[in-house]
Amino acid sequence: MSPSASQVKVNFLEKLKDLVPGAFHDGKLDIAELRKIIGQDFFPDDNSFGLRWHGKEQCIQLICEPSKYSLLPLAANSIDWNTAENLFIEGDNLEALKILQSGYLDKIKTIYIDPPYNTGNNSFTYTDKFYSNSSQTKTAKIKVSVDSLTHSAWLCMIYPRLLLSRRLLRDDGLIFVSIDDNELANLKLIMDEIFGASNFIEIFCWAKSETPANLSRKSKKVVEYILCYQKTKTSEKLKGIRKKTISSNGLLNQSNKINTLVFPPNIVRTKIADEKIKKGIYGTDKYHVELLQDTKVKDGFFVLPVHIKAKFKWTQPKLDMEISKGTIINIPTMRLSPSYERPEYEAEVPPNLINSKVGVATNETSGNDLKMMFGAKVFDFPKPVSLIKYLLGFSDDPDGIVMDFFAGSGTTAQAVLEMNAEDSGHRQFICVQLDEKTPERSIARLHGYETISQITMKRIEILLEKINSLPSNTKLSIHKNIGCKYYKLVK
Fold first, then answer.
1. Residues in a beta bridge with 227
2. For the chain, how far is it from start to end, CA to CA, in angstroms?
3. CA 223: distance to chain centroid?
4. Mean of the pLDDT values across residues 129-158?
């Protein structure tokens, strides 16, 4: 018989004391502190706002149940077991998330997941502890198909996983969840509940296709959505792309007040021939420039300080900061009109549309890339590596841990490895993938891949073999986390 609601809450409190002792004061639960930690109220009244569905209370009980599984290390299936810090876990991600609580609480920098979209497409089967729409009891296995698929079943699948994943995030950590319109509205509500509406960042729209299918009578499906939340929203700006410039920007502006700037010696570049330049009035008919002290040019640089009085855009502190960042200062002619060139602009705040304009590819491109890697189309609609790298770059930590517990074909692992290759970072990945069967007579099955998890790990193997084949002075094996440890969930 199913436990009563009161029994569920009592059991939950007992577990919570062990899991979150900071939420208890003088033996009593501090609701405000608990909300900060888990982002939702476990004791709602009838008038409270939020998403309700059949099986929600049992979700909470499920979270509190200790895992009956453990991680079995498979050194023979791993790559450089003794030194690797990257992890691949084969099995149910709910159980994996429970087990990872002990070692990775508050340690994950970024989570990206691409869960089932609840489309009703029976070509995809996800075996897990769902709750059916017609029963209050837990079911061992429910196939995601047209017959049994419900919003409640999907919510019961995703809700406990999101709750557990939040506890793994660092305070500044971000989570990205890909979704389409089937569950977008429900996902937004439960993420507001779990992470807190105040920690919502954005619903990004990713242009998934340049050639959308003409199947609908109403609209073509061009975009998918990516919900982004931060565990505790900070004032830090997210970083999008960096625009490079080779144009010269004048430092004078007629509408500004007259100001004096001192340009340090051996910094300012020029085309003026080697000579001493006397103090005096220079400039043009439009701009009045006064050199306050004599200066000198040699070998294309002003080798003495340059004291100029004019209508400048910048103040002295701004000039000093730009020089320290590598901004190039030019006074090219005897008009003594300064200009500047930045090697690159600061990263822009990312727009909520993600497409080729920010360097992100489509499903068509990523599908072809994966096909070239495997020699066959072994996985449908993999996410582009450029998409994951772009998202991870919003708030990057080159020493951070990245998690994907719906790992699929292993795109997130590749993104992490490529980012490390590009900047010599030490990012680690944790990928979890259920050993769900590939469809009978599918291309994947014909090429020997009986489960999705085999495809995931094979992609990691291909990438690491490629890295380890590089010359010893260039390969990433100088980093201790270049390999990957393989674990399997077993009862």
1. 177, 203
2. 24
3. 18
4. 52
